[in-house]
Amino acid sequence: MTETVPPDSRPTDDRPVDSDAPDSAPGDAAPGTLRLPAVAPPTGRRRGVLRQLGVDTGYALASFPVAILAFVAVVTGVALGAGLLVIWVGVAVLALTLVAARGLATAERAWLPAVLGRELPRPAYRRAEGTPLRRLLTPLRDAQCWLDALHAVVRFPFAILSFVVTVTFWSVALGGLTYGAWDWSLPDASTDPGQEDLLELLGQESTAGRRILFYALIGLAVALLLPFAVRGAALLQAQVGRALLTSRAAAQEQIDRATQGRDAAVAAEAVALRRLERDIHDGPQQHLVRLGMDLSRAQRQLDRDPAAARTTLVEATVLAREALEELRALSRGIAPPVLADRGLAAALAALAARSPVPVELAVDLPEERLAPVVENTAYFVVSEALANVAKHSDASLCRVVVGRDGGVLRVVVEDDGAGGAVAAPGHGLAGLADRLRATDGTLTVDSPRGGPTRLTAQVPLA
Question: Rounded to two decimals, what is the model's pTM?
């Protein structure tokens, strides 16, 4: 749905604009230049069949001699090093063997993204530090170096299989399809009793025309199977490499991402608590202190000046009402009822209606409710962004677009203000980035001087 929400159609079921929203605004775009967000391209690049066939063929042919070299170097080095351990020379031999295995594994890793069609993490090896002996022992203490050596041994039969399949299928396909060009150079089985070809072995009469047609059909059939056979063999070898050369790095990357997400969540929660404490101190607490003072004054005025006491009580009633409203606003800011009761689309509509800057809202969500963490994060992003637009951007119009984009929820907030928003540490946009990082989400800020400003947040749905 798409709607333009005027700033004065304020609903009564959600909190008012947070005037103490983060300091770093999404502020910014030249009037009349609002742009629809482009759909993010898919991360994996689609290759044509012929291009992928070329990649797989090159991988199979190039990796075969490298696999032979790696197998011989590692087997020989490990055997020699183990035999010489009694005189300590074996330690140096093993270390050099592992360094060589690491270099050959690096060459294999360079091939894997092209074959598998996706980027793979690269492991972080131990750095050689300390005394010369400790530096020499560094490869022996690095688990990834041993995995590289294991890969050199395990991949060898798969490299042979991939090479044989690739060469065989290419040879049969090209030989059969071009057989008519060189049939004349072979002995003619139909005129030479001492020669037999495949047709005669199958009990058929062999003539030049039949041979050309027969082998051309075989070549065509094999050519049709060629991309699948070569692809299967290349994937088999590449998966072995992925398991041994990148799985440890992938696990470490997941651990690091989880750690960063936890730290970001803690930081975002701390910022939210500090802001809530500040809001309570600057708002309801001041009103309640003033209320207590007014009630004490009214109590003293009751006997000597009842009229003044009534006036003071009226003022105290107003203060109590204001404090109550501010407390309600703060509680709704923590957990807005409209979001829990009616979902993200209704909550965003209420949020847009309260914005001092007119908001054009476009929401495209599935009928079923999203996960609570996704809805809360998206609501928080839009709420903070609109508050920043109102405070910092001098914008006359803002656009909010929310919708699914593959496996993520994409939130775009764009305004026609002055631009220049930056995600400086300790400010509002940095807090938004931390909140998104806690859910494995990302925040992109595009805010040139003079505008417009566009915030793009992506929140994973799973």
Answer: 0.54
- 400 contact partners, CB below 8 Å, separation of at least 6: 348, 352, 359, 360, 361, 362, 382, 385, 386, 411, 412, 413
| 364 and 279 both lie in a single domain | no
Are 269 and 383 part of one and the same domain? no
User: Which residue in 383, 367, 251, 398 sits closest to 329, CA to CA?
Assistant: 383
pLDDT of residue 424: 57
Q: How far apart are the C-alpha atoms of 77 and 366, rounded to whole Å?
A: 60
Determine the pLDDT at residue 40: 38
Q: What is the DSSP letter of 140?
A: G
Beta bridge partners of 418: 28
Which stretches of the chain drop beneath a pLDDT of 50? Answer: 2, 4, 6-46
Q: Tell me: the pLDDT tens digits for 100-147?
A: 989 998 889 888 999 998 888 888 787 877 788 788 788 888 888 899
Are 434 and 409 a contacting pair, CB within 8 Å?
Answer: no
CA 126 to chain centre: 26
Taking the CB of residue 62, how many other CB atoms lie within 10 A of it? 13
Place of tokens 């009928």: 367
Q: Which residues form the domain of 85?
A: 49-117+124-245
Is 440 part of a structural domain of the chain? yes
| Predicted local confidence at residue 269, as pLDDT | 60
Q: How far apart are CA 417 and CA 360, in angstroms?
A: 15
pLDDT digits (tens, 9 = 90+) for 414-455: 888 877 776 655 556 767 777 787 777 888 888 888 778 888
Domain end (from 334, 364, 387): 334
Contact 245, 108 (CB under 8 A): yes
One domain, residues 177 and 272 = no
Contact status, residue 351 vs residue 400, Cβ threshold 8 Å: no
